[in-house]
């Protein structure tokens, strides 16, 4: 018997994905550079389904039925390129190579072009949901040709998470579209995690609540509009006690957030596309600042001045009712900032699609994020509804549901941002998202003044509100003559 699908790279993600494929009736060829990993997989899980272990790439390729379809689950960068080349050398025209890692979408565009030139298909496929998702049902974002989707689609649908009866996978677009969308997914993941962290910080430092009490607040929030995987696991992390010391787990963890690059790519790409993703940007920068250990030590030793947080929270700490009111304000601030971050992320996908010539259905993207992935959340149902209606054109913030949600949240949101500033507790996402929202709704922005400055020092010209054409003012001339520039 031949395999209908193969997996190369059997570390945590690859092994879980192979088992998921086998659990759903696929015959799975498996290959790993070191055969011991392949042996371990077969020894521990071989009875779960049909596997064909291979010792060499040639053996792996010949165990696949045509069109041969192989998913690569190895480290992004050079290891991915190496495996792609080995496979392409052993495969034949019409075969399909799928990269399931977190590759940079520009690399995917390049690889797709190279592989297509050799007559094969190359599919960059974003896979979200971590190890558990890979095993029990991930959300998947494949790019590549329509033709490759014909073979790959049914296989991926067989293993995807299911949300509201639909598999969480769709053909995103050609070449790098899938990895692009996965990149933005990760940026949004960073933003989601950051707004949650800011909320925790305010409740901890502002209201002086214990992690276990805050865990209860998140568990409560998880029952409402904020219902999501990340809120759910936040309650779990905050409720967790360190086995060694009995202390709250969050208190024994070094406060320096790591990152592997996808959030940074999202922001770099947004900058190139000229689309503001302030929320994701602040989330990346906040992780960066947290990891500047030496600088933070230096700041501590220099004793940088700040206000007394207790003074700022005196009102909120007055009685139980005031505390509850402040907690609700924080919930609203989280919700509004989260909506802004998603609005910005979807705008980046829209801009990217335009720039790279992809036909991306934003409603479908929201639908496949409802299950399996790290940012899965109830409110993605609302986002898919929003993009399926025509009223969202331009921004999620224009959709009646979200417009109303933010309108209801804004007073709380403003109170939280000003309280935090008064208390000296950093809330970069809450405040920058609010600034974006206010900027977006402002009739006139001080950008007019910036245009004036640019024209004065560099003759960069400006447009007038009352006449068409580009103008330059001769600032040094008496009476400041204005000339129209060609
Ligand atoms: C997912 C995740 C996953 C990613 C991390 C990395 O969708 O399952 O995005 O792909 O490995 O979450 O994020 P860091 O940059 O924080 O390490």
TrEMBL record:
GO biological process: D-gluconate metabolic process; pentose-phosphate shunt
Keyword Oxidoreductase: yes
Pfam family, one: 6PGD
InterPro entries: 6-PGluconate_DH-like_C_sf, 6PGD_dom2, 6PGDH_C, 6PGDH_Gnd/GntZ, 6PGDH_NADP-bd, NAD(P)-bd_dom_sf, Pgluconate_DH
6-phosphogluconate dehydrogenase C-terminal domain mapped to chain residues: 178-476
GO MF assignments: NADP binding; phosphogluconate dehydrogenase (decarboxylating) activity
Subunit and partners: Homodimer.
Family, as annotated: Belongs to the 6-phosphogluconate dehydrogenase family.
Protein name as annotated: 6-phosphogluconate dehydrogenase, decarboxylating
Organism the protein comes from: Bifidobacterium psychraerophilum
């Amino acid at each position: 018997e031949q395999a209908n699908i193969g997996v190369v790279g059997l570390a945590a993600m690859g092994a879980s994905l192979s088992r998921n494929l086998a659990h759903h009736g696929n015959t799975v060829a498996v290959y790993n550079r070191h055969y011991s990993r392949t042996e371990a997989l077969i020894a521990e899980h071989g009875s779960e389904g049909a596997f064909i272990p291979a010792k060499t790439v040639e053996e792996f390729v010949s165990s696949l039925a045509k069109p041969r379809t192989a998913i690569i689950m190895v480290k992004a960068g050079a290891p991915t390129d190496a495996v792609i080349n080995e496979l392409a050398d052993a495969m034949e025209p019409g075969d399909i190579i799928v990269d399931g890692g977190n590759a940079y979408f520009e690399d995917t565009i390049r690889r797709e072009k190279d592989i297509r030139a050799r007559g094969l298909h190359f599919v960059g496929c974003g896979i979200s949901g971590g190890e558990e998702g890979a095993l029990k049902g991930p959300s998947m974002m494949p790019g590549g040709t329509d033709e490759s989707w014909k073979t790959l689609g049914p296989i991926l649908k067989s293993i995807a998470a299911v949300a509201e009866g639909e598999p969480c996978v769709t053909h995103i677009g050609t070449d790098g579209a899938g990895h692009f969308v996965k990149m933005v997914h990760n940026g949004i993941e960073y933003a989601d995690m950051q707004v949650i962290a800011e909320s925790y910080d305010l409740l901890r430092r502002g209201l002086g609540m214990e992690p276990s009490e805050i865990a209860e607040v998140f568990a409560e929030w998880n029952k409402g509009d904020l219902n999501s995987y990340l809120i759910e696991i936040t309650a779990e992390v905050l409720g967790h006690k360190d086995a060694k010391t009995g202390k709250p787990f969050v208190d024994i963890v070094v406060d320096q957030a790591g990152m592997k690059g996808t959030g940074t790519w999202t922001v770099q790409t947004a900058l190139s596309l000229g689309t503001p993703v302030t929320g994701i940007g602040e989330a990346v920068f906040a992780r960066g600042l947290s990891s500047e250990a030496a600088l933070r030590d230096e700041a501590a030793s220099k004793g940088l001045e700040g206000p007394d947080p207790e003074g700022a929270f005196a009102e909120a700490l007055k009685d139980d009712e005031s505390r509850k009111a402040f907690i609700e304000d924080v919930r609203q601030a989280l919700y509004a900032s989260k909506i802004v971050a998603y609005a910005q992320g979807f705008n980046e996908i829209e801009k990217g699609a335009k720039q790279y010539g992809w036909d991306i259905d934003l409603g479908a993207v929201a639908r496949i994020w409802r299950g399996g992935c790290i940012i899965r959340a109830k409110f993605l149902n609302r986002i898919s509804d929003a993009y399926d209606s025509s009223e969202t054109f331009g921004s999620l913030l224009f959709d009646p549901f979200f417009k109303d949600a933010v309108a209801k949240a804004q007073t709380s949101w403003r109170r939280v941002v000003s309280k935090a500033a008064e208390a000296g507790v950093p809330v970069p996402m809450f405040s920058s998202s609010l600034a974006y929202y206010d900027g977006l709704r402002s009739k006139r922005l001080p950008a007019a003044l910036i245009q004036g400055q640019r024209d004065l020092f560099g003759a960069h010209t400006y447009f007038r509100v009352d006449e068409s054409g580009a103008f330059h003012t001769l600032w040094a001339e008496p009476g400041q003559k204005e000339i129209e520039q060609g």
